[in-house]
Amino acid sequence: MNLAARAAAGGFFLRTGPFVFHVRSSMPAVTSGVALLYADHPVTDAAEFADFRVSVSPASGVRRYWRPQAIFRCDGFQPFKPLPAAQALPFLEWGMNWAIAEHAHQFLIIHAAAVERDGRVAILPGLSGSGKSTLCAALALRGWRLFTDELTLISLHDSAISPLVRPVSLKNESIEVIRRFPGATLSDPAEDTAKGTVALMKPPVESVRRADERALPAWIVFPRFGRMETTRLEPRSKAETFIELANNSFNYHVHGRRGFELLAGIIERCACLSLTFNDLEPAIALLDGLAERSRAAA
Amino acid sequence: MRPRPDAILIAALREPERLLDVPLSEWGALIRRGRHAGLLGRLAFLLDERGLIGRVPEQPRQHLVSALTMAEKHRRDVLWEVRCLEQALEPLALPLILLKGAAYAIADLPASRGRTFGDIDILVPRAAIRDVERCLAAAGWRPSPVDRWDERFYREWMHQIPPMVHAYRDTIVDVHHTIVPPTARVKLSPSKLLETARPVANRPNVFTLGPAEIIVHSATHLFNEGEFGRSLRDLTDLDLLLRHFGSVPDFWPSLLARTEELDLLRPVFYALRYTQRILGTPVPDHVANAAGKRGPAGVRLRVMDALFERALAAEDLEDPDRSVSAARFMLYIRGHYLRLPPRLLLPHLVRKAALRGKA
Q1: What is the three-class DSSP state of B65?
Q2: Mean pLDDT, residues B314-340 taken together
Q3: Are B19 and B64 in contact (CB under 8 A)?
Q4: How confident is the model at residue B359 (pLDDT cuts 50, 70, 90)?
Q5: A104 touches chain B (CB under 8 A)
Q6: Is the predicted pLDDT of residue B226 greater than 60, yes or no?
Q7: Which terminus in chain B has less CB density within 10 A, N or C?
């Protein structure tokens, strides 16, 4: 049975980084999307344990026919109001992110993309609109190993980052930009979401295959896309970077002193930089250059 | 008796070592039940305290570690809020009397371990309510926006004023002037309660109620108010409190005496009965018998058993149990019946039902 049929039947168990999700959906947009995006992931029909049981199902009653809606559930609980059915696939992805951010306090979780090269991770924090996900997708298609586009999971014991390796969420203009990259596989776009038009990029197979290989962070790079800017990479104050990362964390406040010390240690060991860019190619070249120099120095 | 669907969780609360025998395939439902009931942090704490958490399989262990981390955060936060309250109320030269969770935390009682805390409950003399509100407002707590009905409901008929929410920290303080509503069928003299307050070690201006009064309050809150969403957590609080105070000399006689004096025998009877029946709490026979004399008997007792033992459960929303929701609904109506006179009961319930339909 293919993934779409399995999602609609009893559901399937999907392993993505440190988490196992039990995923169920009878909605074709979700099942075909999941089948496309998670084709390389380890998937089974039975597992002894799932961290979270998630589902996206059609709303019942009049909402089944009139402006149909989708309902997301995690462990039987409905954390969000229903969304239009056309957004069911990104809804599943947001819901899975929510489940992790809300419950996985065994990690310090930063709202940031993360990519790896030669065993060194670049953390790319950024608000929506900063170009973080676009840059992350582009880097993942150009030989960097994808960890995450949203949730950087940092170990409280050794500061290593756990790959999550899930689809990259692309918005509006960046969908077409990334579609032109060789090797990019994208889901059908969902229109009129809270974030505009959204499409999801399938994670590269190599990143999926190596999803258990953690790595230490080496760079913290704040991307900022600006059409009128020149592309440049500049150093950034460590103190400011600390505050920004803490503010961009989902659960820094949960960890108290331990969180402070962990983050301070990471800031200490990482190069802190700002990347302003008006085009992806020179931005990728600058980050490749960083990785080159680190490799040469090692 | 039918086997409880949350039997593994209950067994784990009674004997945490039992968790080591739980097969991986049953951990998923156990974590969902524990999390939904607000008990995951407590399970984690019980294991951690015994040095056993490392023997739980890796995947479920992460959820326990996460819940334990969250419980530690809550504990830090509640202790910090108590300091803020102490400062805020300093001008009034009133003792700061803490109730429920905040009291367990400040007195470092076992019932505060592995627990999360919601609102902070304080007890003040009714005459001081306006001053307390003023001082809290000056320190950043704002009256929560309630409509006129709710405002009147709280002010005239309840034992607390509408919750006050901190403008920056979003923390909530519930200011009580007694522990049962003035309209309740059980009458209670608040001054009797205030007299029992005792200072917390090394915090001369922070007080908790006495052991017997803590039990009476916790029991009244759980068994008379009709909210059963986290009732199993509250029952484990009672279990831990009774085990802790049970070894204090004079605790049991004073519990019976206070219960009689405050006229709250019924909820205390239920507290002793269900902690004993569900969690195996040791209660001396003469105490159980004395409390039993004032409790229901025969068919009425069997009905209450059926209701409470269903309502006091940890649910798995992936596998919902209709009998739990049905029991909780009946106890919700009972809770309102106990605290509101009939002329208020029906209009209040109808209004709540209508608002719920709108939401």
Answers
A1: helix
A2: 88
A3: no
A4: very low
A5: yes
A6: yes
A7: C
Give which of B143, B171, B204, B161 is closest to B84, Cα–Cα: B171
Alpha carbons A142 and A277: distance in angstroms, whole number? 17
Q: What are phi and psi of B193, to 5 degrees?
A: -75, -45
Beta strands A19-25 and A52-58, pairing class: parallel
- Phi, psi for residue A58 in degrees, rounded to 5: -70, 140
B35 domain residue, yes or no:
yes
Q: A173 by DSSP, 3-state: which?
A: helix
Mean pLDDT score of chain B: 89
Taking contacts as CB-CB distances below 8 angstroms, the residues of chain A near B65 are 105-106
Q: Which residue has the higher pLDDT, A3 or A133?
A: A133
Interval A243-294: pLDDT, tens:
999 999 999 999 999 999 999 999 999 999 999 999 999 999 999 999 999 9
From the list B5, B68, B42, the residue with the least C-alpha distance to B236 is B42
pLDDT over 60 (residue B1): no
What is the percentage of chain A residues whose pLDDT exceeds 70? 100
Q: How many CB atoms lie within 10 A of CB A165?
A: 26
Query: Which strands make up the sheet holding A196-201, listed edge to edge?
Result: A168-171, A196-201, A190-193
Whether residue B2 is contained in a domain is answered as no
Per-residue model confidence as pLDDT tens digits over A36-95: 999 999 999 888 999 999 999 999 877 777 788 999 999 999 999 999 999 999 999 999
3-state secondary structure of B146: coil
Measured between alpha carbons, how far is B114 from B66 in angstroms, rounded to an integer? 11
Indicate yes or no: CB of A105 within 8 angstroms of CB of B25.
no
**Residue B293 structural domain:** 7-358
Q: Can you give the pLDDT at residue A178?
A: 97
Q: Does A81 touch chain B (CB under 8 A)?
A: no
Q: How far is B24 from chain A (nearest CA, A)?
A: 6
**Facing residue for A255 by CB, picked from B24, B28, B69:** B69
B1: in domain: no
- pLDDT on residue A129: 80
Instruction: Say whether A106 and B316 touch across the interface (CB within 8 A).
Output: no
Burial class (CB in 10 A: 0-12, 13-18, 19+), B119: middle
Kindly report the nearest CA distance between residue A79 and chain B, in angstroms. 13
Domain map of chain A by residue range? 3-103, 107-297
Instruction: Indicate which CATH number applies to the domain containing B74.
Output: 3.30.460.40
Greater model confidence, B354 or B258 = B258
What would the 3-class secondary structure string for A252-298 be? Answer: HHHHHHHHHHHHHHHHHHCEEEEEEECCHHHHHHHHHHHHHHHHHHC
Residue type, B55: R
Specify whether the CB–CB gap between B285 and B311 falls below 8 A: no
> Residue B215: pLDDT above 50?
yes
- Long-range residue pairs from B126-133, CB within 8 A, at least 24 positions apart, any chain: B126/B177, B126/B178, B126/B190, B128/B92, B128/B94, B129/B161, B129/B175, B129/B177, B131/B92, B132/B89, B132/B92, B132/B94, B132/B175, B133/B161, B133/B164, B133/B175
Report CB contact under 8 Å: A18, B73. Answer: no
Q: With CA atoms as reference, report the closest residue to A10 among A40, A41, A44.
A: A44
Name chain A contacts of B27, Cβ cutoff 8 Å: 49
What stretch of H or E contains B11?
A: helix B7-14
How far is the C-alpha of A259 from the C-alpha of B264, rounded, in Å? Answer: 46
B83-121 tens-digit pLDDT: 999 999 999 999 999 999 999 999 999 999 999 999 999
**Res B340 pLDDT > 70:** no
Structure tokens at A193: 């979401």
Radius of gyration of chain A, Cα coordinates, nearest whole angstrom = 19
- Looking at the 3D structure of chain B, how many domains does it have? 1
